[in-house]
Design goal:
It contains eleven helices and two strands; from the N terminus they run ααααβααααβααα. By secondary structure, it is mainly α. It has two domains: 99 residues, Orthogonal Bundle (Rna Polymerase Sigma Factor, Chain: A), CATH 1.10.1740; 155 residues, Winged helix-like DNA-binding domain superfamily/Winged helix DNA-binding domain (Arc Repressor Mutant, subunit A). Strands 1-2 form a two-stranded antiparallel sheet.
Length: 272
């Protein structure tokens, strides 16, 4: 989709249908309330409509849209107040000192499992909203919007290594919240050295970044690493669930479509 081929009157309503829900979900995660999320959606799509001629097609239109959303959220000063000043250290986020490890059932979901998954998703949504801003925005862009690390880096004006560090630590914070909710079992003694476990964790995070399967099976991991990785996988799946939920209020979509039509007619009137 490029500006030379598609008009704003065609492109932006299409983007609203394809990405409006995710911008709304971003607003809930970044700004903290439905009203602020609705304000963000309106601000983002109206800016995109008015400045569509500035989109040069070098990135995906959705990525360009999310960059507008992040800037709009900052400009509207709707990022949640009272957020923590820091994220725990890496050693505090790792489960090495925990007496129990999460026991994630591998069987097919039953009624209780479905209820637990809903509770886990709600826990994760609150945990995302409680992340410090510097970690929350890259996590939302990477694991809810499903952008590449390079795309997140471009949007935020950061180095890719910095984005990875922040996303990786944010995932561990979310994992810690999930571990407190999930049923647990006694943690066995590790049968790998701490450095091997850290190296495996780094490889696991890189695999999550790429959306790739981890090359080692559970039988090749110590029980602590296997439980840690299973909880990270659950967190990733729940983030995808959150990002793909269809929560955009229909009346907001109708309002925006009316605004697009009105502004498009005004533009044509000025040109004639």
């Amino acid at each position: 989709m490029t500006t030379g081929l598609v008009s704003a009157e065609t492109a932006i309503p299409q983007l609203l249908r394809e990405s409006g829900n995710l911008v709304y979900r971003m607003g809930l995660s970044l700004c903290g309330s439905p009203q602020a999320a609705e304000d963000l959606v309106q601000e983002t799509f109206l800016l995109a409509f008015r400045h569509w001629n500035q989109f040069d097609g070098r990135s995906k239109a959705s990525t360009w849209l999310y960059s507008i959303a992040v800037r709009a959220c900052r400009r509207l000063k709707r990022l949640r107040s009272g957020e923590p000043r820091y994220l725990e250290s890496l050693s505090q986020l790792l489960p090495s000192g925990e007496q129990q490890v999460p026991d994630i059932a591998s069987s097919e979901e039953g009624p209780m499992d479905a209820q637990l998954r809903r509770e886990a998703r709600e826990t994760l949504e609150h945990a995302i909203a409680d992340l410090p801003r510097a970690f929350r925005i890259p996590l939302v862009l990477k694991d809810l919007a499903e952008l590449k690390v390079s795309e997140v880096a471009d949007i935020m004006g950061l180095k890719e290594a910095t984005v990875k560090t922040r996303v990786h630590r944010a995932r561990l914070r979310l994992r810690k919240h999930l571990a407190e909710l999930l049923p647990g079992r006694e943690a066995p003694a590790p049968n790998h050295s701490r450095q091997i476990c850290l190296d495996l964790l780094s490889a696991k995070q890189e695999a999550l970044d790429r959306g790739a399967a981890f090359p080692l099976g559970e039988q090749e991991l110590c029980a602590r690493c296997a439980a840690l990785f299973a909880t990270l996988d659950l967190g990733r799946d729940l983030c995808l669930d959150i990002g793909r939920r269809d929560d955009l209020p229909p009346e907001l979509s109708r309002l925006l479509l009316e605004r697009f039509e009105s502004e498009g007619q005004e533009t044509l009137s000025l040109r004639s």
